[in-house]
Amino acid sequence: MSPSPRLPGIRPALVALALTVALTGCSASSDDAEGSQPIAEACAGVSTRVDAAMTAFADVDAADPAAAADALAAVVDGLGDASRSIDNAELEKTVTKLHDGFATLSDAVDAAASGDITGVAGLATATEDIRAAGAEFARLCSD
């Protein structure tokens, strides 16, 4: 499938998001947050799933909206699984926000892949939500 000239906002948004999420890591902080699971343990347990979701997202071909929609659906599923595995309220809330941002982005890209470009307007909001949640994830899970 060739790039669609009707989707000019998707490619830059996907590239920006890929760079943002690629820079967020989880190496486990020594501070505990709310919940029965210490934050370091929660981060260690979820980082593999979050990393797998981010890798899938980084591999998105922004020139192919249908493939991007499929990849984003996999990211959303992976982040949903990750958020359900956390027993730390603060980290669970952050990963859920990351999931929700990607779900919004996925919906917009899926609609665009079907020819409905009205969802493109939501890309800026989704991008900001993902950036904010990614920064919070990195803050919670880094030394």
Core attributes:
signal, 143 residues, elongated, 68% helix
Oligomer: single chain
Give unreliable regions as ranges: 1-8, 18-33
Count of runs of 4 or more consecutive helical residues? 5
Order of helices and strands: HHHHH
| Count of the separate structural domains | 1
* Relative strand content: under 5%
Largest sheet: none
Portion of residues within helices: 55-70%
Query: Compute the gyration radius: what is it?
Result: 15 Å
E-strand count: 0
Instruction: Choose one word for the global shape.
Output: elongated
Give the mean pLDDT.
76
How far from one another are the termini?
43 Å
What report would you give on this structure?
By secondary structure, this protein is mostly helical. It has one domain. The chain is 68% helix and 0% strand. It contains 5 helices and no strands. It starts with 9 loop residues before the first helix and ends with a helix. The relative contact order is 0.21. Keywords: Signal.
Task: Please give a quick description of this structure.
The chain is mainly α and 143 residues long.
Protein topology:
Blueprint: H1 10-22, H2 39-58, H3 65-84, H4 89-113, H5 123-141
Helix pairs in contact: 1-2, 1-5, 2-3, 3-4, 4-5
